[in-house]
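--- STAGE predict ---
source: upstream dedup step, 1 unique chain passed
mode: sequence only
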Amino acid sequence: MYEAFKKLPVAKQHRILDAAIKTIAEKGYEAASISTICRRARISNGALYKYFKNKEAMFYACVEYGVEVMMQELYLRYTNETDNLIGAVRNLLYGFKEFTKKHRDMLSIYSDLGSGNMNRFAAITEKVEYEGNMFFVDLVGKAVKRGEIEAGLGIDVVAHLLDSHIMLFSYSLVSDYHARRFDAFFGDSTNRLTEDEKIDKILNALKKLLRI
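--- STAGE serialize ---
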């Protein structure tokens, strides 16, 4: 898949995908115009269809690109900087905060994959969720071996707990709905939590739940 596209210089690949991601984040998948994407990428409409069979194939490439960037710039980078679970989670949360400043559109598209009108792209989320699950399972497994948390809590259960908290936080950075949902669970109805306050709320909740 994408053989012709993969033959392009990496910089040009990124320019095309970044243009597509920006346009889709602004307009939504259905309303995103191929003409707008091509204008931003500085290529012709015909050239785009030489690289991708259709708009759907291009979107798949965008999501795969986003996951790759997220894994390299977030998960692998920030969690390797510490040897304890809470420290790794703290680094990852602050990493998401910084990541959003640079890749807000990318995270916005990923959060939209959970909406009902994106059901036909469910297949691509399986790979994303599997990789995310394996990452957290490995992180928790190491914490169990170090004696930080009790093995009886269940590695899969704790992995899901971490993923749920981190995803809610990350989506709250790009979605007003998720920001309000976060505040409904962790804040109050009168004041919106700051990003740093959200991080503190999550870390304190995890320490209590995991008895760390």
